[in-house]
Amino acid sequence: MVASLIFAHLRLRTVSAWAPATSTCFRAGVPSTLRSPLLSSSRLFSQGPEGNAATEEKTEEEKAAIKAEREARKAEKERFKAEKKAKKESDRLIREAAERIEDVTYLSYDEQNSYPKVGDMTRIMSRSRTGRPFQKVADLESTFKAGDKVWLRGRLNSIRVKGGSSFLVLRQNSFDTIQACFFKDKEDPEGSQKMIKYLKTLTEESIIDIEGTLEEADVRSCSVKKLELKLERIYTVSKAAAVLPFLVEDAARSEKEVEESQGNERPFPRLGQELRLDNRWIDLRAPANNAIMRVQSAVCQLFREALYAEGFCEIHTPKLIAGESESGAGVFTTDYFGTTACLAQSPQLYKQMAISSDLDRVFEIGPVFRAENSNTRRHLCEFTGLDLEMAIDDHYMETLEVIHKMFKHIFNGLETRWAKELSMIREQYESEPVTFTDEPCVLHWPEAMEILKEEGLDIGDGMGDLTGANELALGKVVKEKYGTDFFMLDKYPSEIRPFYTMPDPDDPQFSNSYDIFIRGQEICSGAQRCHDPELVLEILAKKGIEASGGLLTYVESFRHGISPHAGAGIGLERVVFLYLGLDNVRKASMFPRDPNRCTP
């Protein structure tokens, strides 16, 4: 009996352990839970062998119920997981939508409040005139005060974001800068978060638009020192690459500053000339280099002003010509519809024909091409010529006086009207203003030869052209003796001058020609021109030059009557290079052309 009870008890526990906690079975239509491992003693003793079998066997209905409940629990679990996943995804999308920075299409200043405060500007394609009142950084301190709201466009010169604060510097025109700042606003945490996030994506040298309120400040590192901008809106107009060939701040350092840093733990990089020229557009963003281009423009402006005041007329001569315009200078040739044409080495022949056209005083600013394989610091294959020609009454000194007056106007104008640009340049490239005399300082060839002899320089028979060393030595002595960096040397030997040069009336070995120097280096070559057609042909024959093609029409213009005349050709880049005391003429050329460079 006891054994039967134990056996029944164990079997019941096995069934209980197998069955789910919430499962039920039916006996005679009455549900009975299987949670308890033991049956009551009355039920245990009342069951016979048939009762035990009924307990162990489940009906199809019972099995179906157990399966249904199991599947229901599984479905409930899956539903819960799906709802949790959906909620997580929804939260993510809501968060991303709140943080997403959309591109901004800015169409109207009047609708500004409907636009996001940060973002990349959609491509500006002349959709509308927005009406935004953009200001110049250079005018802020003189025109505006703290509390004024302004729009500015410029380059992102630098940016620093840390925590909830950010400082950036906006640059205009290469050297006008202002600091803008942003601090996290507790009253607008979402807007502040979006602003900080966007500021972190900006790259230096990008073009940006910013709006904000001016506040009083003390900023020593910017050109605007008493004001800064509290940033409220910022849009990127043109995004710069994250990695540039070099940094503008590195291009703006002086050689002295770079050299002194070489012993430091983190020395400044020394940028090579080829790297700079390969990426010239970045190099020209450096304040000094940018200012050099403005000084180049200023020289042209002052050249025009001075000559217009003297009654000159600006002309424009052909650059495709049938033959050489300068004997002894290399020439570039090109096919011209089956014949050979040359790129003009100067406008010389056409300036003289202008005099024959009764344009008594003319000048031109234009390109000059020289196919000379000269890889020096002062030669270019293409440069800008400042040329002039004028009728004279009696003597070429009339022309030298006009040229001297013109250069005085240029030198004085640069130091007064372009003082800001010169200051920027001299911070990086040290130089002093060019000294000059009130009246022309003119040396004659024999005097120059005596000076060079006394300096111990080899001048041969005294009839050869000056070397670079000779020019520098002569300039040094002239500076010591006459107190000027700017002087003229005339009466060059005829053998080393072009065919159109008038011979000296007393000694045909010499000529009525002249060169002009700054700091001991030549910037200009000129002469009284030979206006007699027979004498021109005679000189051409002596020099072994065939009078054909374009030269025939040139000589023909003299046969119809022409005034005596003189003139000069000046190299613009040479003037800028030497006036500023630069170490290479390429620094004075926007995109220089030399024997090894024809790009960019």
Please describe what this structure looks like.
- The protein is an alpha+beta fold and 600 residues long.
- It has 19 helices and 19 strands.
- The protein has helices at 2-18, 41-46, 49-56, 60-99, 140-143, 189-201, 248-251, 255-261, 273-278, 280-283, 287-309, 348-356, 397-417, 419-428, 445-454, 468-482, 533-542, 550-559, 572-579, and strands at residues 24-27, 30-33, 118-120, 149-162, 165-172, 176-183, 207-216, 227-238, 313-314, 320-321, 333-336, 339-343, 361-369, 382-391, 442-444, 486-490, 513-518, 521-528, 565-571.
- Strand 5 (165-172) and strand 6 form a beta hairpin.
- The radius of gyration is 44 Å and the shape is elongated.
- 30% of the residues are buried.
What radius of gyration results from the CA coordinates?
A: 44 Å
- Mean pLDDT over the full residue set: 90
How do the strands of the widest beta sheet line up side by side? 9-13-14-19-18-17-16-15
In this structure, how is the largest beta sheet organized?
A: 8 strands, mixed
**How large is the share of residues in beta strands?**
15-25%
Q: Quick one: overall form?
A: elongated
- Count of individual helical segments: 19
**Level of helix content?**
25-40%
Uncertain runs = 5-10, 12-49
Distance between the termini: 111 Å
Alpha-beta content class: alpha+beta
β-strand number: 19
